[in-house]
Each structure stands twice: as structure tokens, then as C-alpha cells.
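Notebook p. 47: complex prediction with magnesium ion.
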Amino acid sequence: MDKKIRTSKSFKSAFQISVAYLLFGMFWIYFSDMCIGFLTKDSDKILILQTYKGFFFIGVTAFLLYLLSYRTLQERHSEYLKYVNDQQIVQIQLSQQNSLLNSLINSSPDAIVIKGLDRRYIIFNKGASEFSGVETYDALGKTADEIFPPQTAHIINTIDNALIENNSFIAHEEIMLMPNGKTYVYWVTKGLLMTEDNSIFGIYGIYRNITSMKDHEQLIVDEKERYDYMAHHDPLTGLPNRLSLIETLRIKTEHMEDHPFALFFIDLDGFKEINDSYGHRFGDQILVLFAKLLQDLFPKNTLIIRTGGDEFVILLESKIDQHSIQIRLNRLIQALNDPFNIDQIEVYITASIGISLYPVDSSNAEELLQKADAAMYKAKNQGRNTYSFYNDGLTQEVLERTTLASNLKKAISNRDLSLYYQPQINPISGMMVGAEALLRWPTPEGMVPPSLFIPIAEERGLIIELGAFVLEEGFKMATEWVQNGMLKGRIAINVSAKQLIHQNFLLQLDELLHKTGCNPAWIELEITESSILEYPEKIIALLGVIKSKGFKISIDDFGTGYSSLSYLKHLPIDKLKIDISFIRDITMEPKNQTIVKTIIALAKGLGMTTVAEGVESVEEMVFLRECGVDCIQGFYYYKPMSNESFGHLIREI
Ligand code: C2E
Ligand code: MG
Ligand code: MG
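Predicted complex, C-alpha cells below:
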């Protein structure tokens, strides 16, 4: 465009000059000839004048030609100089660009390569050299096959072929083995190099090393998996936990309706006692061994879950007819006939198992669990070490017990429970010799009888906390009343066997004595005859220690536990409390009279005193007094009364 404009301008100027020269020449010839005609008519002179005129014309035009040529050459020269200058600038700029590009390519952390269509490297930057361990000068002019290990060269060639075939561009992840023996993960961007007229003249490739990013990603994935594992597994046994169970049950009941399964709810019998007697570490080892036993006894794909404490759940999918289940569970019960051996201590443990079936018993995950739980409690009530299938009659009773247990838990932490006191009277003097502390649980629906909630507290492990409350409260009140001179005698406190054999019981007694300032001589601990028979040796030993601390000890409900008389000889006992069942109708029932007389004689013989419980009438009192009973506790004298009422009573006496 520029060139065309310049050409047309030059043409115009040259044309103007030529026309001017033509006109000037014609004008000169014409007028100079006319002037010569005026000057002379002499032909010789005219000839001479015309020669001079010719010289003059040539002189002028030569001068003009000189000026013209000079100007043109001058212009050309300066144009040439300008051109040379421009060329130099372009050269400098080009070389600057080149070195910029070079430093850009070489300072890039990515591997950048360019190949010709013959697949030989034209550019192999520093990054490429660092990743591969191949020097740039070794790579230039070579193909991938000549530099890289065969599998890497194969990847490179395959991508290049695909690029050329599809005339395309690619960007994806690739794992590549380098000649230096290292394997990296690359993000590969590859494309074709084109001329202006769209013909391919090369291939470029940019390889970004994303190995550490990938490692980091993997680390995050691993970490997530680890957290996920921890959230779904029990750290002690490695078994899936309650969360796993709930999720699996939800999937099975919501999405796999036509796959029946059986749910076994397993609770170890007496595990708390083992834990209390041998310590938690020992208990933990039992749980691990039991988990292993379950894994050995059930098929590999069976879901075995530890839901917490000593509770396990098994989800069995194959052979869930009653007969097959019985065979399996009998095998488990049989396996438990062998003791667990830990630190050379042999421990026998049994399990109570409840079974619910999906979808027969329920198609709802939570209900199935609840029903297996209910069936497990039925197995416990049947004497433990057995299994029980869920049936409809079960739920109501078990649900009530479960609700009661959770309400009791709340009541304990809210301190809603309190102690009542029932005086014990010497029938001869009519004097109060002490009082029994009896636990009371008032609710909006009325008093819950201890005979109902104490066994539940024992069953659900709440008795330790509950017992601690009773001891503290009893010690506190005994201290207050004795120190005020109001109570002449002892406060009797009931202690359950589970509480007594708890490993911290003796320590707890010492701490509470210290905390309340109570003297053990002001306290009598009552333990039922039946609970002594649960763990005789252990309890005899413990009672010995308790007695040596200065507490008095009595056997509660005596006569109902069928204890052997030889035990009685060994027990460090001060008092026998004759059970209410022998006092009832004692005036009319000769057999009861004989039993009561025998117990009183036995106690005297062993150097113990006696208390008759549940005396309601004057006849009963008179009869017992004549039999020689030392003390009477019953409605005949007083019903159990609140802390305040008992305080008033002893203040008045
Ligand atoms: P227990 O230790 O044999 O207590 C005597 C029970 O006989 C008390 O029942 C008392 O209210 C009741 N009783 C007393 N005199 C009469 C009477 O003349 N007639 C009748 N019909 N009953 C009478 P209570 O308070 O319902 O306690 C029941 C059982 O609950 C207690 O029997 C004891 O084994 C247990 N218990 C109560 N408080 C505690 C406690 O703090 N810890 C433990 N481990 N057990 C407790
Ligand atoms: Mg009692
Ligand atoms: Mg009793």
C-alpha cells in the first residue's frame, strides 16, 4: 500500500518535471528564435547566435539536470541510510526477542520441547533436561526412541501420532519413567506448530511435573480414608463400630429389601465384675479375644460389630432359618465353655444373645436393633449363657426397663433420689438403737420402689454411682446426728454385691469417710445373703477388710439365700436380719416360728445379734421379744421417713 502510494507520487513528480521541461524548451526555442529575428537578419550572425543560444540552453539544462540529479541522489542516500538504520534496529530487536524467548523457555520449571516433523528435538529446555537427566546437547537432533526408555518413548510417539492424525491438541495426565530411573507424574500439554498457511511444521510439548501435588493429593485421600476408618471402627478390637452398623442397616433395610438377614445382639455376662475385679486392661484383653472368637466362628463376610462396652452385634446374611441359627449359637456357647487365658489367669465368660430377623420381626433398622436387644434381655432373665429369639410379648417389658434405666440415669445426675430412714427399736427398752437408710426415688407418677429400680441399676451398671450417693449421704447424716448427740446408734446402709466387689469400693469407703468426717463405728453395712452367695470367697475376704476398718456388718434378708452354715462360721458378721417373709403371720405359722427361733439361737451361738424386719403388729413384736430378738424394725414402730422427719423424731426422743 505504502509502496504503491510512493510509486504514484514519483510518477507524478517525474511527469510534472518532464512537462515543465518540454514547455520550457519549446518556449525557449520559439522566443529565442523570435528575439534573434529581431536582433539581426544576417544569416551568419543568426547562425552564430543560434549556436550560442544552443550552448546556453545546454548549459542551463545541464545545470538543472545537475540540481535534479543531486537532489534525487541525496534523497536516495538518506533513504538508504534510514533503511540501514531500520534494519539494524530490527536486528537488535530480533536478537533481544530471541534471548528473551530463550530465557523464558529455559527458566520455566516445566519441560518444554519442540520437534520437527521428523520427530527430532529442536528445542529441549533446561526443565526437560532436569526431569530426564538428559543434557540438552545430547537430546537435540534425536528422537524420543533414542533418548527415553521404550515404554516412555512409546507414550510420546503414540501422543504425537494422535496429534498429527487428528490435527489436534491434548492436555492430560501421564505417568512416565525417565532415563534417570525416576518416575514422575506429568500434566502434558501438546500441540502442533503451524505456518501461516496452516501447514504443520512441528510439535511442541510442555510437561509439568505434578508428582508432589499428586503425592499430596494421595496423602489427603489416605488421611481421609484413615479418619473414615477411625470413625467406623472400634480401636480396641478393630471391628466396625455402632456407626458402621447403623449405616449398613440403613442400606440393607432401605435398598436391599429382598435380602433377609438375622441380627444377633450379644452381651457378655458378668463382664463388669471381671472388669472391676481384674482391671480395665484385663477386661480389654477379654474383649479382644472374644472378638477374635466371633471372627473365627462366623463366615468371613459376616459383619461383626462392637457397639460399645461388652456389647457386640452380628449381622448374618446366609442360613438364617431358626435351625441354622441355633446350630451357630450353640457352637458359640460351646466355645465359651473353654476359659480365656490372660496373663496365666483363666477366666470363664458367657454371653447372652438376642436375635431379631429381617424382615420378619421388623423392616426398620432401629426397631430391629431394639428387638434384638429386647430378646437379649430375655436371654439374661432366662439365666444368662443362652440365646433367645425375639417375640412380640417381649418388647413392652423391655422397653419399660430401658426407659426406667435412662430415667434413673437422669435422676442420679439431677440428685432427684433421697434417703429415707426407718428406726430400729430394742423391744425390751423401747429405745431406738439405729436406723436403716432406704433409697427413695420420687417421680411425678409416684415413688418408684427400690425393689424395681435397684435390680435395673445393677443390670445396667448404674449401681456404682447410685451406691456412692447412698454411702455419702448416709455417712453425712450419721455424722451430723451423732455429733449433735441426737443419734445413739448406727445408720445401716444397704450395699449391693456388685458395688462391694467393685475394685474401687474400699478406696471409695476411705475417701467418703474422710470427706464426711464420719466414724466407721457409726455405720453398719448391710449385704444380702443372696449376694454373698454370688461371690462367696471374694466377699468374705472383702467383708474382713471392711470390718477391720471399724464398720459393723449385717446379713440382710437372712434365711432366703439358703446359705450353708459353714459359710456363716467364716463370715465376719455382727448381725443377722431375719427376712420379712418369716415374720409375716408369725403368730399363726408354727413353721415360721421354728425358723425364727432357730435363727435367733444360731446367731446367739455365733456371737451375733438379730433384727426382725417387717414387724407390723403388737402380737408379732411381743412374740419376737419373747423369742429373744435383739431389735425390731417395722411399721409397728415406724415406717421409713424422710431425712427431716427422722431428724425431728430423734431430736424429740
Ligand atoms: P431391705 O434392705 O430388706 O429393706 C427393708 C424393706 O422392708 C424396705 O423396703 C422397708 O420399707 C420394708 N419394710 C420395713 N418394715 C416393714 C413392714 O413392717 N412391713 C412391710 N411390708 N415392709 C417393711 P424398701 O424400702 O422398699 O426397700 C426394698 C429393698 O430395696 C431393701 O430391702 C433393699 O434390699 C433395697 N434397697 C433399698 N435401699 C437401698 C440402697 O440404698 N442400696 C441397695 N443396694 N439396696 C437398697
Ligand atoms: Mg436392708
Ligand atoms: Mg431385708
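Notes: DSSP finds 24 helices and 22 strands in the chain. The chain has a mean pLDDT of 90.
Next step: compare against the earlier run before touching the bench.
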